[in-house]
Write a structure and sequence with these properties.
The complex is a heterotrimer of chains A (378), B (75) and C (49).
Chain A: H1 2-6, H2 8-11, H3 14-32, H4 37-51, H5 63-72, H6 76-88, H7 92-96, H8 101-107, H9 109-121, H10 133-140, H11 147-156, H12 162-174, H13 176-187, H14 190-194, H15 206-223, H16 228-243, H17 247-271, H18 275-278, H19 281-311, H20 330-342, H21 349-377
Chain B: E1 3-7, E2 12-17, E3 24-25, E4 30-36, E5 39-44, E6 49-54, E7 61-62, E8 67-73
Antiparallel strand pairs in B: 1-8, 2-4, 2-7, 3-6, 4-5, 6-8
Chain C: H1 2-32, H2 37-41, H3 43-48
Classes of the chains: A mainly alpha (378), B mainly beta (75), C mainly alpha (49).
Chain lengths: 378, 75, 49
């Protein structure tokens, strides 16, 4: 046994070797393909470090175990990230077009529809996979297209698949430009995609911008109290940005704090991906479900977009509904690209940004709603 | 002689201007490139005609709805 | 699966109810706190004036 303790090579199982390869793949995707490098490089490194045998980083007292207990189990990391996200987001495009909120709401069907499917494949119906009611919700939450929300909800529900769910959520966010356009083209007609929308919107006062984050905390918190930590940190960050008097804090939240927490979060999530927890058929199914979640959310947003197109007397381009899933600003850019492809004068960017930032709020509300409802169902 | 005002579709920064005042343009010609949300938006002429006025220069920041160029349609 | 169906419906209902309220809040803010011409475009200039 002595050589086993001395030389890691002898303790290397094939499962651990697969995980080392996976970590390498994530790092490769991040560096060579620039797929979400800010996340995939720390996550990939975390995977490698956690799976080098006898390294002890995931043992009690090891770096990853300490970070996980301090930042993930307590929900600290996702909430701190949310302060930074709030400080980065300009809700102006949403405030100028309040109706786009509904597109963000519709796209949350990605969460609930995927939950339904996962539960059906798991304990609720076919029992093909080991998906309990709460696991199914955690898998569905990939459809929030939001990393911190996914971590928050999956951890709150104590799902054993949290690492796979988080990695799926982050990797599909980078794949939005590949997943969305075919669905957008399939569900809309050429005439719908060509529709240009007005460049001008109503102006929004500074007082509105300052009051909005505070009132959102109250509205969301009073209806879906479990969403309060998420909406609270998000909107606190936004208040720092919009107040205009704490420029320093706003910048610190967007840069220093978000960056530091991203490093810690990425490493820790990578460190949670040990062979024992990760190499199982359920993980592959979670990845499949992730695509379903993004596709269902996109489709639901588009369908409500089509309803709005008709209800508005053909003044709203249904494509902006696809931006209802909250991967910001990737979805808004995809909508702009697909719209411009149909009509070179069609710039939907700001309209899509409205739906996109609405999606950010909506996914937080949906996460909170799921957490509120679980005790009544599970 | 209809005039067409090309407006900025989003707040952002003018990266490049491809036309000059007084010069003719064809419908679909690129007028300028606007950067918004870290994305480049190519603005093209809605009609063929003459560039009657230009309200932009490279590096300038614009608000959504700001006029960028006025094109006088050729008859 | 009936349980799951109700969960989906209740979840979407909470999402739409909450966001409808937010729309009301935004519309009200936009109506009552309409920007004065200068203040809307350039808040800093309004402060100096």
């Amino acid at each position: 046994m002595l050589e086993g303790e001395l030389l890691g090579v002898f303790a290397l199982t094939w499962q651990a070797a697969v995980m080392l390869g996976l970590g390498g793949l994530l790092i490769y995707l991040g560096i060579a393909k620039e797929v979400e490098p800010v996340l995939l490089v720390p996550i990939g490194t975390g995977v490698i470090l956690a799976n080098v045998p006898l390294g002890g980083l995931t043992e009690p007292g090891g770096l990853f175990a300490v970070l996980r207990a301090a930042g993930i189990d307590t929900e600290l990391f996702p909430l701190l990230i949310f302060i930074g996200v709030g400080a980065m987001i300009d809700f102006g495009s949403l405030l100028e077009r309040p109706y786009t909120v509904f597109l963000g709401a519709a796209a949350q069907f990605g969460i609930f529809g995927t939950f339904f499917l996962a539960y059906f494949l798991g304990d609720g119906g076919l029992r093909l996979f080991d998906f309990s009611f709460t696991d199914a919700i955690s898998i569905g939450i990939i459809g929030s297209a939001d990393g911190p929300t996914s971590i928050y909800v999956a951890t709150m529900l104590g799902s054993k698949y949290t690492p796979a769910i988080v990695v799926a959520a982050y990797s599909y966010m980078a794949l939005v430009p590949i997943i969305q356009p075919p669905i957008m083209r399939a569900l809309t007609t050429e005439a719908e995609r060509r529709l240009a929308m007005p460049t001008r919107a109503q102006r929004v006062s500074r007082r509105t911008r300052v009051l909005f984050p505070i009132l959102s905390i109250l509205v969301v918190g009073l209806i879906a109290p479990k969403a309060t930590p998420l909406i609270g940190t998000l909107m606190f960050g936004n208040l720092l940005r919009e107040s205009g008097v704490v420029e320093r804090l706003s910048r610190a939240a967007q840069n220093e704090m978000a960056n530091i927490v991203t490093i810690l979060l990425g490493l820790t999530v990578g460190g949670m991906m040990t062979a024992r927890d990760f190499l199982r058929p359920e993980t592959i199914m979670i990845y499949v479900m992730g695509v379903v979640a993004f596709a269902l959310g996109t489709a639901a947003g588009l369908m409500l977009g089509k309803v709005m197109y008709l209800a508005s007397g053909r003044r709203i381009n249904p494509l902006i509904g696809a931006a209802g899933i909250s991967a910001f600003p990737m979805c808004a850019r995809v909508v702009q690209r697909v719209g411009l492809e149909a009509n070179p004068h069609n710039h939907l960017l700001m309209h899509a940004a409205g739906a996109n930032t609405a999606g950010q709020i909506a996914s937080v509300v949906a996460g909170g709603a799921a957490l509120v409802l679980v005790p009544f169902f599970a | 002689m209809a005039e067409h005002v090309v407006e900025a579709p989003a707040p952002g920064k003018i990266l490049r201007v491809h036309v000059e005042e007084g010069k003719p343009v064809a419908a679909g010609d690129r007028l300028c490139v606007l950067e918004a949300l870290k994305m480049e938006l190519p603005m093209v002429a809605p009609v063929g005609g003459t560039v009657k006025a230009l309200h932009m220069s490279p590096g300038q920041t614009v608000e959504a709805g700001d006029p960028l160029a006025v094109i006088e349609a050729s008859p | 699966m009936l349980k799951a169906t109700w969960f989906v419906l209740a979840g979407m209902a909470i999402v739409f109810a909450t966001l409808s309220l937010l729309v009301l809040v935004m519309t009200a803010l936009n109506r009552w706190l309409r920007p004065t011409p200068e203040a809307g475009a350039h808040p800093t200039r309004a402060r100096d004036a």
